Amino acid sequence: MDFDLSAEQEAVADVVTSVMQRDLSWKALADGGVAALALPERLGGDGVGLSEVGTVLTEVGRHGAITEALATLGFGVVPLLDLASDEQQDRFLANVAKGGVLSAALNEPGRALPDRPSVTFSGGRLSGVKLGVGYAESADWLLVTADTAVVVVSPKADGVRLVRTPTSNGSDEYTVTFDDVAVADSDVLDGASTARVNQLALAMLGAYADGLVAGALRLTADYVAGRKQFGKPLSTFQTVAAQLAEVYIASRTIDLAAKAVIWKLAEGRDADSDLDVLGYWLASQAPPVMQICHHLHGGMGMDVTYPMHRYYSTIKDLTRLLGGPSHRLDLVGV
């Protein structure tokens, strides 16, 4: 396996970086053509693969951008390209290139990314509760995992109720209740499995988190190199260097795990064990190394207008969506 970026991935990374250096918003990504990269050519896209979408999310994370990118590209576009028919893709992905938002309702009360959801789908009716649904109110469509099917629902459909819930990074997140919501046959993803949706979602979340940790490491390294104490840069102190080394090791390991998962999924290989390792490593290692980055920033790390806040708060939200380290460790042992 060669995890160096391909020429196409390098080009994608350059495009994302050029946009993010000017504007961190989802609108900017859409205006810059990034939102359309994964779409089929018939929808005005470039038809790039799973690895390139992962590169997009990694670079978005590297810049600490809190946007609809993960929800739309990672939880919406990627599963729909993998599981939906061409006709369904044409309907559900129609507005993405112009900045339209998609999201997915995957988590349930007390259950992170369950492969056997409690939400029920029977007789064309959807009922149940989903938690942690990002950008649900502004989304055109929600991908919903249920006990017997994977369906796509409008958040404005009759019987759908949205309640906004707090997040660490201030992004839009909702608890979504489906009360006997009617779902047309054309909105059911024929043959799709919840397990496959969860695999793709975790892989894309891992790519985004990979960028967040790498970005926080770069931000912290630059800060301690420029900050002086006792007339010397903080980076020259042995304790500071040792703590940065811990962050570097965690960052490189997360990068390896994230890329291995995406490579296996893209190649059609069994990635179950790799996904479990990725989920556990993110939940157990990303939060502590973010704490180290905060500590090395001193008071600056506590300033919510300073970029470090975006990295750490987003990792906290992602860890919650994963179910926490104990839950992820249980899955590794299954």
TrEMBL record:
<dbReference type="Pfam" id="PF02771">
    <property type="entry name" value="Acyl-CoA_dh_N"/>
</dbReference>
<keyword id="KW-0285">Flavoprotein</keyword>
<dbReference type="InterPro" id="IPR036250">
    <property type="entry name" value="AcylCo_DH-like_C"/>
</dbReference>
<keyword id="KW-0274">FAD</keyword>
<feature type="domain" description="Acyl-CoA dehydrogenase/oxidase N-terminal">
    <location>
        <begin position="19"/>
        <end position="99"/>
    </location>
</feature>
<dbReference type="InterPro" id="IPR009100">
    <property type="entry name" value="AcylCoA_DH/oxidase_NM_dom_sf"/>
</dbReference>
<comment type="similarity">
    <text>Belongs to the acyl-CoA dehydrogenase family.</text>
</comment>
<feature type="domain" description="Acyl-CoA dehydrogenase/oxidase C-terminal">
    <location>
        <begin position="204"/>
        <end position="326"/>
    </location>
</feature>
<dbReference type="InterPro" id="IPR013786">
    <property type="entry name" value="AcylCoA_DH/ox_N"/>
</dbReference>
<dbReference type="InterPro" id="IPR037069">
    <property type="entry name" value="AcylCoA_DH/ox_N_sf"/>
</dbReference>
<keyword id="KW-0560">Oxidoreductase</keyword>
<dbReference type="InterPro" id="IPR009075">
    <property type="entry name" value="AcylCo_DH/oxidase_C"/>
</dbReference>
<dbReference type="InterPro" id="IPR046373">
    <property type="entry name" value="Acyl-CoA_Oxase/DH_mid-dom_sf"/>
</dbReference>
<protein>
    <submittedName>
        <fullName>Acyl-CoA dehydrogenase</fullName>
    </submittedName>
</protein>
<dbReference type="Pfam" id="PF00441">
    <property type="entry name" value="Acyl-CoA_dh_1"/>
</dbReference>
<dbReference type="GO" id="GO:0050660">
    <property type="term" value="F:flavin adenine dinucleotide binding"/>
</dbReference>
<dbReference type="GO" id="GO:0003995">
    <property type="term" value="F:acyl-CoA dehydrogenase activity"/>
</dbReference>
